[in-house]
Amino acid sequence: MYCHRRGKTLREREVVGKNWALAGDAAAWVDPVTGEGIYYAMRSGQILAESLIAEAPEEYPARVQASFRDELERAAKLSPMFYHGKFLGGAVTTRMIAFARHSPTFRQLLADVFAGSQSYRTLKTRLWGQLGITLAETAGSLLRKKQPNIAAEAEA
Fold it and tell me: What is the pLDDT along the chain (156 residues), one digit of tens a residue?
């Protein structure tokens, strides 16, 4: 399975050696759900610099793990469900687009995921906790769009 191999790659990839180091995309530090990699490139560069300044380049992998590698491994495990899963009788991605179109609460959740401020560790809890609000906002938005404009009809 892809997600298992991806997680294993993140854990086992050599990212530092004598006179060399990998950072960002070169180290495969890209969110497999969102495709976002700029944050991880910048953060891994910062961590590498800190490790070199401390004259401890061998600590670089452990520092990356403490900062974000485990989060990327969680995302790798979730990505097949995200791209190939089903929810409410349709594809997860299709439902997400519909919810984002009609629910400000869901749009904020997605913004937080893409910004990296929403951890994958707590995403499921937040999704289920906000599902009622998301469904209500979506239903309300769809109902408002289907109602005829009574004021416009009265003027005609």
Answer: 344 455 566 777 899 999 999 999 999 899 998 888 898 999 999 999 999 999 999 999 999 999 998 889 889 988 898 888 898 888 888 998 999 999 999 999 999 988 888 999 999 999 999 999 999 999 999 888 776 665 555 565
Report the predicted TM-score, pTM, of the whole model to 2 decimal places. 0.70
Question: How many angstroms separate the CA atoms of 121 and 71, rounded?
Answer: 7
Contact 17, 33 (CB under 8 A): no
Please report, for residues 14, 20, 63, the alpha-carbon distance to residue 123 in angstroms, rounded to integers and kept in the order given.
29, 36, 24
Q: State how far Cα 136 lies from the chain centre.
A: 24
Question: Is residue 141 within 8 Å of residue 116, measured between CB atoms?
Answer: no
Measuring CA to CA, how many Å separate 115 from each of 5, 80, 109? 25, 21, 10
Cα–Cα distance, 104 to 71 (Å, whole number): 25
The answer to whether 27 touches 15, Cβ cutoff 8 Å, is yes
**Cα–Cα distance, 15 to 3 (Å, whole number):** 20
